[in-house]
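User: Could you check the structure of this?
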Amino acid sequence: MSVISVVIPVYNDSQMLRRCLAALAAQSRPADEIVVVDNGSTDDSAAVAREHGVRIVVEPQRGIAAASAAGFDAALGDLLVRLDADSVPDPGWLQHIEQRFDADATLDAATATAEFNDTGRFAAWVGRVVYLGGYFRGMQLMLGHPPLFGSNLALRATAWRVMRDGFHRYNATVHDDLDLSFQVRPGMVVLYDAGMRMQISGRPFDSAWLFAIRSWRGVATIALNWPGWIDRRVRFTRVENARTISAPVTRDSAPSLP
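Assistant: Sure, the predicted structure tokens are below.
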């Protein structure tokens, strides 16, 4: 059985945080620890966290990368689970994650997409299939493994301690999910797990300007991590080829992307 720490970075998002914490309180397998990282909020986000009796960590350096890293560093569990303040996990989310990791000691990280819960049907489809689907498919081709998605992510604390030295936590220009994905080392096992069911808000589409900034950060993150990427990609390919030879892919083990 794992000790699960849930990490939630938050900045001026008290209402969404309240909903997220209520969903975590309704989990069939409760978290052993919930760490809310207050990233300099001026609203009542910290008060909402205190109302729910969760642990609060303060990270004054603004940015999701800095806040999530501070939460991972402070967490006491051996399984670190991350979502955002606007995330609403399925009631069986943590139970599914625990069962997945307990069943596979070689697994280092697991992630999945999410459904948009406050947009129209067409916008939700575009968000899931084009926006998130493009992220998962495109970045998997580049990285050699499924990219990590910060709104729906679990990784072992042992993996984080290896990955964190390369994570650009204090670089405000990075796309934090993608930057963390680049820190996965050859030999680590990352799973796309469709059983990790999650809902999120459609805020990425509220502003064309904010969407453009998010996209630019993705490009900047790729450029930042580009040196050495080809060598790392070759090593990933060698490791995966060795795994395929020793354990051929079957219908049941083949990856399933959104």
